[in-house]
Amino acid sequence: MQQKQNLVLIGGGHSHAIVLDLLSKISLGKTDLILISDVIKTPYSGMLPGHIAGYYTYDESHINLKKLADRAGAKLILDRAIGLDLKENKVLCKNGDRIDFDLLSIDIGSTPATISVPGAKEYAISIKPVPNFLAEWNRLLATLPNSLTIGIVGGGAGGVELALNAERRLHDRVENWQIHIFDRNERILTNHNQSVSKILSNILVKRGIKLHLLESVAEVTREGIICKSGLNVRCDRIFWVTQASAPDWIAKSGLITDSRGFILVKDTLQSLSHPHIFAAGDIATIQNNPRPKAGVFAVRQGRPLYENLVRRIAGKELKSYIPQQKYLSLIGTGKKSAIASRGSFAWESPLLWLWKDYLDRSFMNRFQ
Whole-angstrom Cα distance, residue 357 to residue 362? Predict the structure, then answer.
């Protein structure tokens, strides 16, 4: 006979949104479902650049976790997890609550690494957590000056999409604007092929966005960005979109992590050290099959995570999940066109934007 137990989900990331949607269609018997999240509405990364450009409303680009939790029969605890007591199997929350769990899943995403750069914490706005970034972006839109210079640190897909979609939103609203991208590599989008990098570099130049390659940021001040080369650029706003990092409490909790602090998991998405703890999305690194921190993997891990959580509850053997080696990325240009990137393949077309829009809206419709 099944024992009464708690299944606790920390975070409302893409994988957990899918898990909640699928759990709403079945009964967990004597298992109580609890979701811990510090936000009621969580952003969908695929539509966030379009929201910045003004193509999608806030609600269109966010998943309502309260409605999703209600549908799944889950108790929503609006708080932020700050630690784990693995001896007592408790989640430690910011407000002091200690939530008991028998089975735990973690999907809290990641944050850009800023600690090593002086002044970044004080004067730069991190792209994550997204709610903090959007609050600052909306304040900026509400009080646009005649002259505005934006600095973006990070030339990956996130930084480039932010630049292109911000330019689209600001172009006709600010008389004198400049956007600068700073990256320490010799080309942008180093996780993609050279053709994608070249196409986007040309688009950035045509749109008047200044690209500073082979530039490492040495310091961030109230006035702007200082690079190790001596380059000094005055900026009114600085957005930080660099390599992903994990919160300190993950490693401090005693979970085995990789060198960057992400939870190391098996192919079953179970923690290497604690088999009753699962992890998915950016916060997890699959030991045998590591992949880039990209939303496409978080989405695809949703169903395998759901199946293994249900199997664990039922006492059944778990299934392995092997992520694809090559994956398709659709990168929006901010002007209702997109670039497809997969392996060595690259193609830009407005048709790809229509396809991306269809896929994103279809994904979000399942949660409405």
Answer: 8
* 188 and 133, same domain (yes or no): yes
Looking at the predicted structure, is the pLDDT value of residue 347 above 90?
Answer: yes
The candidate with the shortest Cα–Cα distance to 341, out of 203, 132, 194, 184, is 194
Is the pTM here over 0.90, yes or no?
A: yes
> Does one domain contain both 128 and 228?
yes
- Residue 164's pLDDT band (cuts 50, 70, 90): very high
- Find the angle CA(258)-CA(264)-CA(270) to the nearest 5 degrees: 175
Q: What is the mean pLDDT of residues 102-127?
A: 88
Residue 281 token pair: 């999305």
Question: Helices 14-23 and 65-72 meet at what angle, rounded to 10?
Answer: 30
Task: Indicate which CATH number applies to the domain containing 217.
Answer: 3.50.50.60
Residue 2 has pLDDT above 70, yes or no: no
Tally Cβ neighbours within 10 Å of residue 150: 22
Q: Are residues 135 and 26 in the same domain?
A: no
In angstroms, how far is the first alpha carbon of the chain from the final one?
35
Q: Report if residue 25 sits inside a domain.
A: yes
